[in-house]
Amino acid sequence: QVQLVESGGGLVQPGGSLRLSCVASGMNFSINPMAWYRRAPGQSRDVVAVITSWRTTTYADSVKGRFTISRDNAKNTVYLQMDSLKPEDTAVYYCNTQILQASTRVNYWGQGTQVTVSS
Q: Does residue 101 register a pLDDT over 90?
């Protein structure tokens, strides 16, 4: 059974930094893409950053140059380093992976971790 467990959220002042972690289990971590999404109050859940098994990364325009996604395959963990945080980054952040099962890509989600950027 695939499980994704996020940690590292919290309250931070504008301009500050946080690092989110997501530990995966029940899957072959190294061969699957990993992603971070976020859902702000009253909005849809949107992709923030993606890292492939080849460590190719992509970012939403709103976080380019401020956020960095990385992965440690030895620890089955994906990270999101968030710098220069803004109030508009306030959201619940979710870890995600897509796993090919019977010719279908199945999405798995963590429980989410709250990030609040406020003075």
A: no
